[in-house]
Amino acid sequence: MQAVCCCCCCVCFTRGTKRMSLAYWLEEGPAEPVEEGTIQFGPGKGLPKLVFNGLDGSRNRVRKIATLDPVRKKIILIQPGDKALYLSGLREAGIPGYLYLFAHARPDRIQGAVDIHQIVNVVRRSGFWHGQPILVDACNAGALPHGAASVLALTLGTYVTAPTTTTWNHALGGPAVGQGAFEKLPGVLSGIPFPHILRPGEWRTWGPDGQPIASTRTSPRDKGRPLTGTKASNLLKSP
Known about the structure:
The protein is of the alpha+beta class. It has five helices and 16 strands. The strands form four sheets. It has a nine-stranded mixed β-sheet with strand order 3-4-5-6-7-10-11-15-16, sandwiched between helices. It has a three-stranded antiparallel β-sheet with strand order 12-13-14, with no helix packed on it. A two-stranded antiparallel ribbon has the order 1-2. The protein starts with 13 loop residues before the first strand and ends with a helix. About 40% of the residues are buried.
């Protein structure tokens, strides 16, 4: 079962001079064709798209869409039908020097991909990845040794930074309390779409050999810098 991932609390989105109306949120538009080419409908219209194989919520094998933003070096694996988070991915400014990957995830799988090679193939075919580091903004993707981020780093031979907990994003963008990596609220409160702001998570960086090399409370997206002077073996220990 795919883990619960990013949370969105906002209900409107501005991109350039366009503002998403309530109709976008309340009405069912045409489904985006799952085929390679360009996005046909919605706020991502005109952006290139690729197709990869993944699992749906019932663990059936399906074809999924990867939306590409060549200007800002972003790959949005969130599906267009997941309106709030898709908008959140579109509004991200990107990170100079990084490829930015926005997705749902669990510790061992990104966007339900049947294997890591599906994601690797999308990255390589994007046309704008040239070996630079990758930021995976996807819940829990950096939580485990030999997990999603570790294997992605090893397979591509580059540095990959990913969160160890749930991540929280807002479709309007900009500064917001509780945006970033945080644990969920405890117990019965875990279903509330709001982060545990007293329990921030970490962003762990994995080297080209798939081993952890640094960890920080913030990510390159937040202009965070990796910690230095800490042995990689200590980064995997629970606080």
